[in-house]
C-alpha cells in the first residue's frame, strides 16, 4: 500500500508554503481562488459520465440506493428496515456487504470503451461516497477499502488507466464527510470546533488522490454539514491550484462547505439536477441520472423510471445551450457489470453526438437560447456559425425560425429551400433521439 502523503493539517500548510509553483499564485481565500480561470478543456468537453459505485451497490435497493446505510440505520425508513429483515439474518451489519462487493466482472477497459462510445469527453468516478468505503487503497481507511476487502483491487487506479487510454479526462468524486466515522461524529458533537476528522482523514485522502491519480477534475460532495472553514477548503484548493501536479489542468466544483453552492469554487453544480431558468453568468454543470430515482444501482428499478434517449438528448441540449456541461450518471452493479439498458442509452447518446456533435462540443451560448415557433429549438454557436437544434419534427417539414436575422451571405445546411425564415427541410430518416441540427452560416 502506498504511504499517505500527509498525516496532519500542519503537513498541508507546509505543502502550501514550500511547493515550487510558478506564475500566478492563489491565496487561501475565496476572492483569490474564485478569480482563477477555468481550464479550457472543461468548457469544450460539454459531456461527461458520472459513475456511482461502492458497497451500496450490493444491496442495490430503494430510492437513492447510495444512501442505503443511512436510510436503514439512521432514518429507519420502513421499506429499508423491512428489506433487511426479510433478506438478511439478525445481526447482519452494513460492513458485511463489503465482503459481497466482489466486482468479479469489472473490466475497466470495457467500461472506458462504453464511455468513449457515449460521446463523453470526461468521466467522474466515485472514489468515496458518504459510507466512507474507498475505491482505492487509502491508508486512512484500513479494512474499509477496495483492496483490503471486497474486490481486492484498486478500482480507481484501474479505471483511471483505462479512461486515459481512451483519451478521456479523469474526474474523481469525493465525499468530504462520512456518516459514521468516529472522528467526524466527534467533531460534529463539538459543533465543528474541532477538526480531528479533517486533519486525519479528509485532507490526507484528498491529497493522496491527487498525488496518486492526478485527476483532471475533483467533484467534491458531502460538505453541507459544516462550513468551509471546518473543511479547510481554501487551504486545500490553494495547494491544488498552486503546487499540485495537476495545478494547470484541474477543475473543481462548488461543494466545499455549507454556503459555497453556486458561490465559490471552480464551476457551479449548485444542487443536484440544477436547471437554471435563464443564462447563468458562470460556468455550470448539471448532473443527471438515467435512473431518475437513484444515483447508485437499484435491483428494483423499473423501465418506466429510466430516462429514454429523447429525454436525455433534450436535457443535454437544453444544458449546453444554456452554457452548461452535462454529467450523465449510471450506477454499475456490484459485480462490475453495466446494466444493458444503461449501455444502450449511452451508445444511443454517442450515436447522436457522432452526427450532431459539431453543435455541442466547444460551442457557446448564442444571443438567444431557445424559441418555440414551430417546434422547440435550442441554439448554440461556434465562431460565426449558429446551430439550431430541433427537438421534434416540424409539421409538413416546414420550419419557421423567428430569431435568426438573415443576409445575402446566409447559408443553411441541410436545407434545400428557404423563404425568409421559413425553411423547407428535406425528408430525413427517423432519429431515435428525436432531435436534428441545422447549421446556419451568415446569420446574426
From TrEMBL:
Name the Pfam families for this protein.
Alpha_L_fucos, Fucosidase_C
Which reaction is recorded as catalysed by this protein? an alpha-L-fucoside + H2O = L-fucose + an alcohol; a neolactoside IV(2)-alpha-Fuc-nLc4Cer(d18:1(4E)) + H2O = a neolactoside nLc4Cer(d18:1(4E)) + L-fucose; a neolactoside IV(2)-alpha-Fuc-nLc4Cer(d18:0) + H2O = a neolactoside nLc4Cer(d18:0) + L-fucose
The answer to whether UniProt assigns keyword Cytoplasm to this entry is no
Which EC class does it fall in? hydrolase
- Its principal location? other
List the residue(s) that the UniProt entry marks as the site May be important for catalysis. 287
Range of residues in the leader sequence: 1-23
Q: InterPro entries, per this entry? A: FUC_metazoa-typ, Fucosidase_C, GH, Glyco_hydro_29, Glyco_hydro_29_CS, Glyco_hydro_29_N, Glyco_hydro_b
Q: Could you tell me which Gene3D superfamilies the record lists for this protein?
A: Glycosidases, Golgi alpha-mannosidase II
A GO biological-process term: fucose metabolic process
| Subcellular location per the Swiss-Prot or TrEMBL entry | Lysosome
The residues covered by the Glycoside hydrolase family 29 N-terminal domain are 24-358
- rRNA-binding: present as a keyword of the record? no
Protein keywords: Glycoprotein, Glycosidase, Hydrolase, Lipid metabolism, Lysosome, Signal
- State how it assembles: Homotetramer.
Q: Which PANTHER family match?
A: ALPHA-L-FUCOSIDASE (PTHR10030), TISSUE ALPHA-L-FUCOSIDASE (PTHR10030:SF2)
Q: What does this protein do?
A: Alpha-L-fucosidase is responsible for hydrolyzing the alpha-1,6-linked fucose joined to the reducing-end N-acetylglucosamine of the carbohydrate moieties of glycoproteins.
The UniProt entry's sequence similarity note says: Belongs to the glycosyl hydrolase 29 family.
The name this protein goes by in its record? Alpha-L-fucosidase
Amino acid at each position: 500500500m502506498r504511504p499517505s502523503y500527509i498525516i496532519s493539517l500542519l503537513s498541508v500548510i507546509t505543502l502550501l508554503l514550500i511547493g515550487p509553483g510558478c506564475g500566478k499564485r492563489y491565496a487561501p481565500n475565496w476572492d483569490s481562488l474564485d478569480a482563477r480561470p477555468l481550464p479550457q478543456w472543461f468548457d469544450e468537453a460539454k459531456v461527461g459520465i458520472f459513475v456511482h459505485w461502492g458497497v451500496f451497490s450490493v444491496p442495490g435497493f430503494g430510492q437513492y440506493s447510495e444512501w442505503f446505510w443511512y436510510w436503514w440505520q439512521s432514518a429507519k425508513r420502513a421499506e429499508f428496515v423491512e428489506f433487511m429483515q426479510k433478506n438478511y439474518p439478525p445481526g447482519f451489519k452494513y460492513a458485511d456487504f463489503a465482503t459481497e462487493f466482489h466486482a468479479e466482472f469489472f473490466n475497466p477497459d470495457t467500461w472506458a470503451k462504453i464511455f468513449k462510445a457515449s460521446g463523453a469527453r470526461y468521466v467522474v468516478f466515485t472514489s468515496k461516497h458518504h459510507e466512507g468505503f474507498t475505491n482505492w487503497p487509502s491508508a486512512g481507511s484500513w479494512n474499509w477499502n477496495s483492496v483490503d476487502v471486497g474486490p481486492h483491487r484498486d478500482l480507481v487506479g484501474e479505471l483511471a488507466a483505462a479512461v486515459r487510454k481512451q483519451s478521456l479526462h479523469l474526474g474523481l468524486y469525493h465525499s468530504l464527510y462520512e456518516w459514521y466515522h468516529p472522528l467526524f461524529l466527534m467533531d460534529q458533537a463539538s459543533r465543528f470546533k474541532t477538526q480531528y476528522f479533517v486533519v486525519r482523514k479528509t485532507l490526507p485522502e484528498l491529497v493522496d488522490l491527487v498525488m496518486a491519480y492526478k485527476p483532471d477534475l475533483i467533484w467534491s460532495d458531502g460538505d453541507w454539514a459544516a462550513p468551509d472553514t471546518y473543511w479547510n477548503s481554501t487551504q486545500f484548493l490553494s495547494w491544488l491550484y498552486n503546487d499540485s501536479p495537476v495545478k494547470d489542468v484541474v477543475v473543481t466544483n462548488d461543494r466545499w462547505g455549507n454556503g459555497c453552492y453556486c458561490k465559490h469554487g471552480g464551476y457551479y453544480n449548485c444542487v443536484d439536477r440544477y436547471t437554471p431558468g435563464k443564462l447563468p453568468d458562470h460556468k455550470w454543470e448539471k448532473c443527471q441520472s438515467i435512473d431518475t430515482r437513484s444515483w447508485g444501482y437499484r435491483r428494483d428499478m423499473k423501465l418506466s423510471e429510466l430516462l429514454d434517449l429523447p429525454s436525455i438528448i433534450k436535457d443535454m441540449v437544453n444544458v449546453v445551450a444554456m452554457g452548461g456541461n452535462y454529467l450523465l450518471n449510471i450506477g454499475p452493479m456490484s459485480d462490475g457489470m453495466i446494466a444493458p439498458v444503461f449501455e444502450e442509452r449511452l451508445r444511443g447518446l454517442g450515436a447522436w453526438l457522432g452526427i450532431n456533435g459539431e453543435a455541442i462540443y466547444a460551442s457557446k451560448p448564442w444571443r438567444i437560447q431557445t424559441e418555440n415557433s414551430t417546434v422547440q429549438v435550442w441554439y448554440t454557436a461556434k465562431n460565426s456559425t449558429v446551430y439550431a437544434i430541433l427537438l421534434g419534427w416540424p409539421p409538413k417539414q416546414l420550419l419557421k425560425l423567428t430569431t435568426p436575422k438573415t443576409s445575402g451571405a446566409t447559408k443553411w445546411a441541410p436545407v434545400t429551400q428557404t423563404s425568409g425564415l421559413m425553411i423547407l427541410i428535406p425528408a430525413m430518416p427517423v432519429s431515435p433521439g428525436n432531435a436534428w441540427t441545422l447549421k446556419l452560416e451568415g446569420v446574426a
